[in-house]
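Page 42, continued from yesterday. The earlier attempt failed because a stray header line got pasted into the input along with the sequence. Redoing it now with the clean sequence only.
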Amino acid sequence: MKKIEAIIRHFKLEDVKNALSEQGIKGMTITEVRGFGRQKGHTEMYRGTEYAVDFVPKVKLEVVVDDDLAKNVIDTVLRSAQTGQIGDGKIFVSELQDVIRIRTGETGDEAL
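This time it went through. Structure tokens are written below.
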């Protein structure tokens, strides 16, 4: 099993969610996050005063899938989240040792 975490722009969330749903992905977790990379924040004006925003707001999408679906999920996120500009985000892929559904105690693929 793989855990795929994608840090994406807020306005791309709906596109990514719809694209993953079309691919048969049944569940995902979304978290609002802040961070910076090469984008290094930006400046904004508020009531005539300029101030620096060091941490840019993003969305973190987490999906857990079987190994055979991981490549498809990654390609779908890449295709639907990409704008071609700095700050499009990152995708992280991790190997999961096990998954346990709390309600039933099912483990592994059955817990997904």
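Notes: The chain has a mean pLDDT of 90.
Reminder to self: strip header lines before submitting.
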